[in-house]
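for the writeup, i need someone to sanity check this before i put it in the appendix. the sequnce is what the collaborator sent (i think, or maybe the updated version? ugh). structure was predicted straight from it, no edits. if anything looks off just tell me and ill rerun, i have time this weekend
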Amino acid sequence: MGKKLLEIVRDKIRVKHYSISTERTYLFWIKSYILYHNKRHPKDMGKIEIEQFLTHLAVEKTVSPATQNQAFNAILFLYTQIFGVCLKDENIQALRAKEKKHIPVVLDKNEVKMIIANVSGIYQVMLKLMYGCGLRMSELLNLRVKDIDFS
């Protein structure tokens, strides 16, 4: 019995040493693409179906441009890496998701000190490491003792 499409995709992602997060994301978007088109096999679909799906994400799902690009990259991976189909010359034109104006919230030094002072124990150490080293949560959680230069 042959492997299922999503298993083939997962194996290819792992061979290419993509992160587990990318693997989950790509599998999610590929599955969503297939389900959106009533479980049609992607080999039987192409430019028009890709455009319909990406437009659906922008219009009905109102996803961000980054999310829409993420979905597109997953579908691109499917066609190029699994089916060996080059989509570069297809000029895929989907309605693009609207960019939202995002104004970052920045805390001043006193606000940061107040937050750190209101946390204790290991959580305070974690917070200080994140703030002092500019780490993301995932980077902090994946820190190992050998990653720290104690000198």
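The two ends are 57 Å apart (CA to CA). The chain has a mean pLDDT of 90.
thx in advance!!
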